[in-house]
Design goal:
This protein is of the alpha/beta class. It is built from 6 helices and 7 strands; from the N terminus they run E-H-E-E-H-E-H-E-E-H-E-H-H. The protein is 32% helix and 16% strand.
Length: 219
Amino acid sequence: MSAATGSGGPATLLVIAKEPLPGRVKTRLTPPYTPGEAARLAEASLADTLHAVRDMPARRRVLVLEGRPGPWLPAGFDVVPQCAGGLDERLAHAFAGCAGPALLLGMDTPQVTARLLAPALAADAWHGCDAWFGPAADGGFWALGLAEPRPELLRGVPMSTPTTGARQRARLVAAGLAVRELPELLDVDTAADVARVAAAAPRGRFAATAARLAGGPRG
């Protein structure tokens, strides 16, 4: 799938995601949500993220996908498959496919906006800056930008732990990179996160899906 490019941004924007299939995504939401409901929340979160990225200035937009694209994918993205291996290897591989500055996001922060990412999207975002880092409230990270693709900066970092973000940032600093910070965001990982993230972006698809599930049958 070919992407529209050249919309004024200095960086490639990457979104790494799984196809939102029941039993394959957001398994920590079950219970109280059923696997089908968790997949609906994941699809809404991914769609909100992709539509936000579509409207951001970028040199190129890429969805790094495990699975197949569906109707939730807007126009304007290249779609490339994730490689095999752990999350650190898959993130490293995503950056390895880029040339020049690249900023990577996950699919778990549907509240993301161009305003939140504005410092890393500006024309001078990479002047005197080698990396952008967006910490997540659970100790991970929701955004990572590199001025040059250096996959070795991600390989071997333990993922999905309370210290993942701190260890990834320390890896960047130890490599001599000048790191700038983005705001901390909450990932959607648990059922308790759903309402908090929906409240942070009340007009999005994720909030609408959460509201429907809260008020409807749980089949």
